[in-house]
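Comment thread on ticket #2218

A.B. wrote:
> Attaching the input chain for the structure job we discussed in standup.
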Amino acid sequence: MKKAILPLLLSLFCFSLSAKKVKFSVDMTGQTISAAGVHIVGDFQSEAGLGADFAQLTPMVHESGSIYSLIVTIPAFRKYEYKFANGDLFYEVEFVPVESRVGYDNVDNRWMYVDSLQNDTTFVGAILYGGNAPAGLYLVRPLVDLTAEGTISTNGVHLAGNFQNWSVTKNRMYSFETNIYETIFYVAAGTYEYKFYNGNSASNSETVPSSCATNGNRAVIVSGDIIPDPVCYSSCVACLGTSLKEQGIDSSTRLYPNPSTDKVRVQFRGSNQSRSLILTDYTGKTVRTYPDVTENDLSIEKGDLANGVYFLHVVSVNTEATVHKLIFN
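C.D. wrote:
> Ran it. Output below, let me know if you need it in another format.
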């Protein structure tokens, strides 16, 4: 009996070392709250004992005012994807802005990386529903390429800056693409300094070239949500062959307002070119087509379309096809 209990105790002890309390929170300011309540869905649900991942919506607790939250205990040292829903049906999920999306393979979930180097509950703040950041703050999403470094520290890649007291262990970066790491943090408008670290101690700091350094650090001026241009580690420029598009963050097409009650404006960045637009519903059925669109500005009227989620497929000769979620309510 003792032999059977010992492995169980060891496994529970190991889980406690790597498990982490995570608080998901959303600010529903400006939204008419569904009678069914506010929910969340993600790939953390099975680990939290809430059912299969992305299979059902989990209700969130009303804290006060417009804030809803959910606290779970889930394994650390992992990236999690999620999104909020104003209601308990899948078509009621929020439209996640491009700056906050996973962005790979046209996935429009939010994401966060959880580690257990900090002993407190992981909490990024109450993010505005359908927005990029908590109220009064802006999203910053730096990307760094460590291809030229050869070896990546087993302690992970980190970012530290004056916005978080230069804590080298607080902002661990995640790699969606080989050797390209990124993180998201939220700050008020202003100018901020930061550095990348190949490891989790001050001695692992990159050396920022003087031509792009501010006090020996990188600097970013924040006046809105921003994704700084990706750079090589210890360099002022991107590594050869690295671009924002190659990392799957498609910022060439803008849809707004989204969600909308009457029409959505679609803007394309770059030179005019012929595009074909196909609007499909949640089941994949084509409900509208816009062939040979050459202007960079187009309005999609709601007209006789029902409330719900639609997908706008953009196909052009010179670029890869992209898909964008569009919501009428």
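A.B. wrote:
> Thanks. Noting for the ticket: The radius of gyration is 22 Å.
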